[in-house]
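Progress note, sequence design subtask.
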């Protein structure tokens, strides 16, 4: 991505995109990240005993990473693109049965964009710059 100027922020310098297209492109990819996470959460809630990498609380239906048992750990409900890709890979049979987006060329695109976001994360030199977190929705039925 080419940039036109940098602005100092409390977190370092921010390089502004050269044009609106580039800014919208990255915004679209992040939107995609949210949709994939929604599919993963839905499948984990529907198949709590079979789903690897994510656990579902039977009472609250909260989703959290299985490998982080500490209840007070703030990262247990926060997922990076690389973590999402490994969850997709571990649960591809469930996801592909539930959603056509996890088959064929669509699956190839999911991996491509998760890899892209992982690369962007690594290049930023920041700790966990791209994450998505499951939240409590008091109106959710599942």
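Output:
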């Amino acid at each position: 991505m080419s940039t036109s100027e940098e602005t100092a922020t409390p977190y370092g310098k921010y390089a502004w995109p050269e044009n609106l297209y580039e800014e919208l492109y990255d915004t679209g990819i992040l939107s995609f990240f949210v949709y994939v996470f929604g599919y993963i959460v839905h499948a984990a809630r529907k198949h709590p005993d079979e789903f690897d990498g994510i656990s579902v609380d039977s009472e609250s239906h909260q989703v959290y990473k299985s490998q982080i048992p500490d209840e007070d750990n703030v990262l247990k409900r926060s997922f990076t693109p690389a973590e999402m890709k490994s969850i997709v890979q571990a649960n591809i049979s469930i996801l592909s049965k539930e959603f056509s987006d996890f088959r064929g060329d669509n699956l190839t695109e999911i991996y491509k964009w998760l890899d892209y976001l992982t690369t962007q994360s690594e290049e930023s030199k920041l700790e966990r710059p791209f994450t998505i977190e499951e939240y409590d929705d008091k109106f959710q039925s599942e």
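Strands lie at 3-9, 12-17, 54-56, 63-65, 78-79, 132-133. Work on this subtask will continue into the next period as scheduled.
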